[in-house]
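for the record, two folds in this file. i put them one after another cuz i was lazy. first one right below, seq on top, structure tokens after. the second one comes after a little note so u can tell where it starts
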Amino acid sequence: MKFYVASGVPNAEKVNLAAAALTAAGHERTYDWTTHGDVSKTTPERKREVAAMESRGVAEADLVVLLLPGRFGTHTELGIALATSTNKRVLLWSETSAPFDGTEGFCVFYHHPAVERVVCPFDELLERLKAI
């Protein structure tokens, strides 16, 4: 199975841990955005290139894991995952239920029928990912 892990740049370490758990389970990463990190200060050409690579990575994935908190890019990746979701599994993780119950921001797409919301400590998420 191919996977993509999305989150904000400050969560890059967690993204790589989640990807390592899935890779250890025999799955293939479609794109690793953590290798370039924040591209906000790069050229317009580089921004276009990264946007295309990240979009393709999400679209090609069978499983998209989104780690909250995220920012604009993470939410865009959620939208791409939902728009290309013919049998795509979308896991949305948070350590607390706050993003889902509206006490810390709100996004209606967190409640889309194709989204599996996961609330647990990060170590527990890693164990779940290893079992996929």
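(here's the note) second protein begins now
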Amino acid sequence: MNNYELMVIFTPVLSEEDFKGAQKKYEDFIAENGGSTVHSNPWGLKSLAYPIQKKTTGIYWVLEFTGAAEIIEKLKIQLLRDEQVMRHMVTRLDKYAVEYNHTKRNGGFAVTQKAEA
């Protein structure tokens, strides 16, 4: 089982119910194919760096999950078929990225104070 991070930019015209439905659809797809969701993080509506399909904003969603390598191609096909998805990116996480995400989710990092001379 590998660790992956999926970032999706959905079209900004989605309602809140449609956005939650799309999240659930992809989480269920991963679960059906033998994977499991580690963490879901909806970022919400953000400005894009450049227009995509004549839109200047998009609804961002980041999903961290585990699964076999075979699941990625099936997931990419589903994402490309979905008209609500403007862009997507799947990244395989190494052990350091998994540890970093876990620490960030569970209380963050300790702030270090500069020692005064």
